[in-house]
Structures are given as C-alpha cells and as structure tokens.
C-alpha cells in the first residue's frame, strides 16, 4: 500500500493544540440538542476531512465506507427502542415514534462528527510530532512520551512475529479444530507468545535506556522543536466561524421542525 | 516504593499498544454485530476494558490500570478509530474506574473476583459517559435494562475472567517475573 500524502495546512498545526481543541469540540457537541445545528456542524467537519487532509480522493472515499455503517447502526437502536409519544410504526417490540426517530438521527450525526474529526486528526498528525509536542507544550513526562514512541516502533516487529507464528503452525501441521474450541485455541496460540515476547522486548529496551542514562528531566533538549504558527489560528477560527454559521443556518433554514431531541415528560 | 519506573511504564505501554490494535479492530466488529439488534453488540463491548485489567495483573502496581487503559485508547485513537476523539475520554474514565477498584483493595488482591469487579466498574464508567453521549436514559425501560445487563455481563466475562486466565497463561511463560515487584513469598523463599 502506498502512503503518499501531501502536507496541508492541517499537518502544520501544533499537535497539542489540535488535540486539546478537538476535546473541547467533543464536549461542546454533547451540549447540542438541536438536530439542525448538528447537521450543519457535521457538514463543516466533513469539508475539512474530505478536502484538506492531503490524502488522495480514493483513500478518502474508502475511509468513508465504514461511516455509513456507523451512522446506521448508531441511529437504529434509538429509533426502534427510544421513548416517544407520536407513534409512526409499531411491530412487536419495535416502536418507532417521531421523537425517537429524530433522536436516533441526532445520535447518528453525533457519531459521524466524532468519527470525522478523529480521523481528520489521525490522518494529519504524525505520532512522533504529537509526542514531542506533548512534552514541549503540555509538559508530558519524557518517560511516558518515549515509552509510547518506542512502543509504536515495535508494531512492525509484532506483525512480523504474528506471521512467524502462523507460518510455524502451518509448517508443523497444527490441526484445525472446529467452532468455538478452535477460536479459543487460536486466541491462546497467538496472544501468549505475542504478549510475552513484547513484554520481554519492552523490558530490554527499558534496561538499555536506563543504562544509557535516560533521564526524566523535563528541561531536556529535543531533536524536534515544535512551536506555534498562523495555521493554529486558522484552525481555531475555522471552527468558531463554522459553529456560528451552523447555528445561524439552523435558525433560519432548519431541515426538520425539531429543536430539542431529548425526551421531555 | 512509590512511583513507576521506566520499565513499568514501557511494559505497560507496549502491552497497551497491543490491545490498542485489538481495540481498533474491535470497532468494525462491534458495528457489524450491532444491526443484529437487541443490544447483542453490548456483549462484546467488554473487550474495550481489557487493557486495564491485564496490565494491572501483570505489573501489579498502583496507577498501571489507568495508564494502560489511557494508552490503549490513545493507540486506538492514533490508528484512526471510527469513534474518533471520544475513545480518549472513555479510555480515561474506564481506566480510572478500574483503578479505583484495585485501590480499594490496596493493590494487594489479584484474584478473579477483584478483576471481575474492576471490569464491571469500567463498564459503569462507560455507561456514565453514554448517559451524556448516547441519551441512553431515553431508551424504553426494558430496553435500557437489556443494554446495561448485556454490557455488564460481557465485560465481566471478557475483561474479567478472560483477562484473568490470559495472565495465568502468561505467568506460565515466566515473563511476568521480569516486571512484578517482589512479593512476600519471594522474601519468605530467601529465609
């Protein structure tokens, strides 16, 4: 799989700021109970995700497929089983009401906006820069940041080991059992060696780091110096404007005649 | 005695990254099971609490459960989770709730009961988050009970019992001796 990406302005945002701001956005979305507002807001997040991550359109479209599933599966249980008075359809246990329908849709959009923003973050942030930034701007202790960076480097080795185990089992002719027994057998056969080897490796790395005088001093020097730029301001302004516009548009041109999806007795 | 050494943190985080990848792969599975309906998906939700209990059982030190669950959630987030930023906050809350249970037993009990309790506490933490995010209290009553029940049972089985037996098998490999603090039995063995 090729991994060519164009660096866009989203890549140049300070990773700590991006992360903190996304957490603020997450919490703010929890206070939105008006579905029209949320739909507009989701569109704003979608624009960033679709056109500014620097990934080719084909990959973006591929990543969008699970979003449909997320939307449908999040929305349905509330639509079918939510509280409400104005019945639209009833069949057995399923009881769709106007209230539960809009609430379900609202939850679907909520899941969608979290997914869009989260994926936008992971598509435009390099983990190494994120941890350097967390150390420099948010004073994360180096032992956590470097542990994480070392851990990320171990992932390819784990994948290789996984394949080795698989091939070894084929070569030695390990018998395939059937059904649930096979599932648990396989789970154990893979997870125990993978975990134990990872623990051993992590332990060796830690010993080596300490032997080389790894210190937990926050006043250390850094290979990458990460600061702030005008793109940070762009990012924050984009969302402030998007939120204001979404709110205004929801007031002026609502999609649905509902302003609060919560159930009121 | 107090505080975690670099070794403890590195081992915790590496274990968490392994589970972070599992968490990431669990997302599509969860969404694939969900349309079956009647909250069958909640039965497998418990997998998302397993990093806290497994890491604590391996390293047996204060703070490990919280760090492990947070790190696993971070790994899931960085690899592009379908749930986006919410996994980070859920991870912190779930880890904290499991940590509280281990702290109540003063980090000295490692039996299956305590682990199951910690798993259930994580589930409770996630339910509190769902109250704000998922309007779950607006579900019809019988359906809400089914939802909570399925999640609790699933987490006790996966993050409780399964985690316990997983670490039991790991102990047989001898790898846990590398990272665990010396216990009373170790001291007794010296006498």
From TrEMBL, chain A:
Name a Pfam family for this protein: CbiQ
GO CC, alphabetical: plasma membrane
Give TM segment ranges.
Answer: 20-53, 60-81, 111-134, 231-250
Membrane association type: Multi-pass membrane protein
For this protein, the record's CDD domains field holds:
EcfT
Q: Which domain of life is it from?
A: Bacteria
Q: Which keywords label this protein?
A: Membrane, Transmembrane, Transmembrane helix
Q: Key word Membrane present in the record?
A: yes
Where does the UniProt annotation locate this protein? Membrane
Q: What is this protein called?
A: ABC transporter permease
Organism of provenance: Aeribacillus pallidus
UniProtKB/TrEMBL annotation, chain B:
Keywords from the named record: Membrane, Transmembrane, Transmembrane helix
Q: Does the keyword Transmembrane apply?
A: yes
Q: Which Pfam families match?
A: ABC_cobalt
Q: Give the matching InterPro entries.
A: ABC_thiamin-permease_prd (IPR017195)
Q: Which residues cross the membrane?
A: 6-26, 38-59, 87-105, 112-132, 144-167
Is Mitochondrion there in the keyword field?
Answer: no
Which protein are we looking at? Answer: Thiamine ABC transporter permease
């Amino acid at each position: 799989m090729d991994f060519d990406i164009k660096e866009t302005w989203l890549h140049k945002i300070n990773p700590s700021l991006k992360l903190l701001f996304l957490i603020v956005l997450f919490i703010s979305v929890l206070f939105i109970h008006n579905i029209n507002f949320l739909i507009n807001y989701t569109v704003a997040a979608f624009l960033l995700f679709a056109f500014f991550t620097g990934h080719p359109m084909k990959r973006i479209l591929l990543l969008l497929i699970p979003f449909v599933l997320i939307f449908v599966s999040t929305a349905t249980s509330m639509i079918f089983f939510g509280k409400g008075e104005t019945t639209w359809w009833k069949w057995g246990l399923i009881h769709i009401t106007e209230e539960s329908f809009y609430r379900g849709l609202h939850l679907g959009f909520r899941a969608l906006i979290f997914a869009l923003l989260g994926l936008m973050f992971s598509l435009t942030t390099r983990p190494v820069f994120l941890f350097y930034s967390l150390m420099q701007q948010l004073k994360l202790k180096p032992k956590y940041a470097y542990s994480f960076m070392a851990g990320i480097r171990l992932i390819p080795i784990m994948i290789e080991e996984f394949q080795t185990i698989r091939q070894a089992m084929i070569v030695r002719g390990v018998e395939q059992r059937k059904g649930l027994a096979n599932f648990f057998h396989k789970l154990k056969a893979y997870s125990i060696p993978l975990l134990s080897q990872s623990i051993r490796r992590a332990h060796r790395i830690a010993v080596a780091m300490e032997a080389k005088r790894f210190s937990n001093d926050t006043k250390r020097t850094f290979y990458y110096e990460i600061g702030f730029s005008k793109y940070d301001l762009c990012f924050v302004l984009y969302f402030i404007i998007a939120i204001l516009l979404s709110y205004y548009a929801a007031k002026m041109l609502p999609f649905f005649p509902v302003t609060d999806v919560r159930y009121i007795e | 005695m107090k505080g975690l050494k670099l070794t403890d943190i590195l081992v915790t985080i590496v274990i968490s990254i392994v589970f972070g990848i599992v968490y990431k792969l669990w997302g599509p599975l969860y969404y694939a099971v969900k349309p079956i309906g009647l909250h069958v998906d909640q039965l497998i939700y418990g997998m998302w609490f397993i990093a806290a209990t497994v890491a604590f059982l391996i390293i047996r030190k204060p703070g490990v459960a919280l760090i492990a669950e947070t790190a696993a959630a971070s790994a899931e987030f960085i690899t592009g989770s379908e749930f986006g930023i919410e996994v980070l906050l859920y991870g912190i809350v779930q880890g904290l709730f499991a940590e509280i249970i281990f702290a109540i037993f003063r980090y000295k009990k490692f039996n299956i009961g305590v682990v199951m309790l910690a798993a259930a506490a994580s589930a409770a933490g996630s339910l509190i988050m769902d109250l704000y995010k998922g309007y779950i209290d607006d579900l019809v009553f019988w359906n809400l009970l089914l939802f909570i029940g399925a999640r609790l049972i699933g987490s006790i089985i996966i993050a409780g019992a399964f985690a316990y037996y997983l670490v039991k098998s790991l102990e047989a490999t001898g790898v846990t001796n590398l990272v665990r603090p010396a216990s009373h039995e170790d001291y007794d063995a010296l006498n």
